[in-house]
Amino acid sequence: MSERWRSGLLTAAALVAAALAASLVTAPAAAAAPADADAEAGGAVVRTGGGPLNVRSNAATWHPPVGELADGAPVRAQCQLAGERVAGQVRTTALWLRVGPDRYVSDAFVRWPSKRPVVRWCDQPADPPPAGRARFIEWAAEHAEPSRRAHRVPASVTVAQAINESGWGGSALTEHGNAYFGIKCFGTPGGIAVGCRPYDTRECDDDDCFATTGTFRVYPSAARSFADHGNFLVVNPRYRPAFDHTGDPNRFAREIHKAGYATDPSYSDKLIALMRKYDLYRFDR
Predict the structure, then answer these.
(1) Does residue 175 have an active-site annotation?
(2) Residues in Cβ contact with 89 at an 8 Å cutoff, skipping those fewer than 6 apart
(3) Catalytic residue (choose from 228, 255, 264, 284)
(4) Which three-class secondary structure state does DSSP give residue 82?
(5) Where do the structural domains in the chain lie, given as residue ranges?
(6) Are 75 and 83 in contact (CB under 8 A)?
(7) Predicted TM-score (pTM) of this structure
């Protein structure tokens, strides 16, 4: 598998989104809670078995609660994200529902009517980069600097990756999720992303490249995406060899590619070509 997002095409069809959402849900509860007026009227309700349901600031349980919903309270889902997989009173699922600004509850504790409605995937607040390639590069370099200082990730590599993976900020994943590095969810949004959502992508194996769908981390701001990129490289042991070459951006790019950051066989060549063309090395000095 690869963290690399390539095509930037949003999975827009409702049937496709519904099918993917269904694939994130398993192991329904053996005994359903009794029907009540809210559920029968077409709404959804909290089912915890007694206590309140914690409301979180992102699609995971490791952030402190920001509120509660009582058992039996109606749930008015605005949209959904994928996130931490939770075994709840109703089902086991990786789906989380946004119930307010920066407020999410696990769908594992939500009882839906007999037919679950199609819930749209959450867009994040717009935080676009400046127009024009020169301005994009300067902007990306500013966002890359904290990671260079904190984690020793060469800024030249970070900027090249942001250009390559976001299409100069024009990809659907970037426009809807403020994501510049195509980091896949792999069962968790981590501690920086707000959650994950599906997008069309392309992957490559030893024989060919092919279209597929992946679930990618999304962010409330571009700054959070850049921060997660540096953190992601540091906390994953497979990228450790790259940090022996922080003074050689070209080698660093080849090492993260070799470690599995991307399945595109030309990935590191593309990064090095961008670093040379736009002299991105100047941001490492």
Answers:
(1) no
(2) 29, 33, 47, 48, 49, 108, 109
(3) 228
(4) strand
(5) 24-111, 133-284
(6) no
(7) 0.80
pLDDT of residue 29: 37
Amino acid type, 284: D
What is the Cβ-side half-sphere exposure of residue 18, based on CA atoms within 13 angstroms? 8
CA distance 213 to 251: 30
Residues 6 or more apart in contact with residue 107 via CB below 8 angstroms: 25, 80, 88, 90, 91, 93, 95, 96, 97
Known active-site residue 38: no
Report yes or no: 179 and 4 within 8 Å, Cβ to Cβ.
no
If one compares 210 and 244, the residue with the highest pLDDT of the two is: 244
DSSP per residue, 168-215: TTTSHHHHHH--SS--B-TT--TTTS-EEEEEEEEEE-SS-EEEEEEE
Cross-strand bridge partners of residue 69? 53
**What pLDDT digit, counting tens, does each position of 248-276 carry?**
999 999 999 999 998 899 999 999 999 99
- CATH number attached to the domain at 133-284: 1.10.530.10
Check: CB of residue 60 under 8 Å from CB of residue 125.
no
End-to-end CA distance of the chain: 34
Using DSSP's 3-state secondary structure scheme, residue 141 falls into: helix
| Contacting residues for 19 by C-beta, under 8 A, at least 6 apart | none
CB of 194 closer than 8 Å to CB of 15: no
Is the Cβ–Cβ distance between 36 and 59 less than 8 Å? no
pLDDT of residue 74: 95
Catalytic residue among 175, 200, 203, 284: 203
**Is 24-111 a CATH 1.10.150 domain?**
no
Count of positions (residues) in the chain = 285
